[in-house]
Amino acid sequence: MCRVLFVQASLLRVLLMAEPGIKPTAPDPEGPPQSALNVSLIVLGGAVLILFFSLITRLIFPATDPSREDNPGHFVGEVLQVEVRNGCGVAGLASTMTAFLRRRGFDVVEVGDSPPFNQEFTMVYDRIGDLEAARKLAEAIGIPEERVVQDIDPEEFLDASVVIGNDYATLKPFQE
To answer: Which pLDDT does position 26 carry in this prediction?
Structure first.
């Protein structure tokens, strides 16, 4: 950038002090055009600034680890993250169960269907190895402890899953 200003100032001085009849010399046609060099320097400087900013940001705010801890027992007593699935195919059951659980302080993070819709009994599945948390969920919706099954899945980031079966009419959310 300084070189450009120097060249421009030199050209201006030559033009102002030129004697009549003498033409100033043109820049070397074999060299790269000055505007292309300027644009290249600006782009390169911007890239360096972005990389520097990224480095500083990464050092100040390190990335968080999304994996669960090996011993999730301390989750009991905190808000349980729950998935609700409709396993019998009756419309609106999962949304009714979701509203019921949310009113009672559970964090329902996923709602949907569980085809092929032939679930006979409502089940609670422990997903992280914390049967006590799954039993709390079962008690809240009114199903017996025998229908709490441990099905640990480290790929799922929730505490338990509820799959609503054909016995839904006997559950607390559908008796209110």
So the answer is: 57
Q: What is d(CA 157, CA 87) in angstroms, rounded to the nearest whole number?
A: 21
Query: pTM for this one?
Result: 0.57
Summarize the confidence of residues 108-126 as an average pLDDT: 94
Say how far apart CA 148 and CA 175 lie, in whole Å: 21
Q: Of the candidates 161, 165, 163, 141, which has an alpha carbon nearest to the alpha carbon of residue 151?
A: 161
Residue 64: what pLDDT? 52
Structure tokens at 79: 């808000």
Q: Are 26 and 33 in contact (CB under 8 A)?
A: no
CA distance 14 to 9: 9
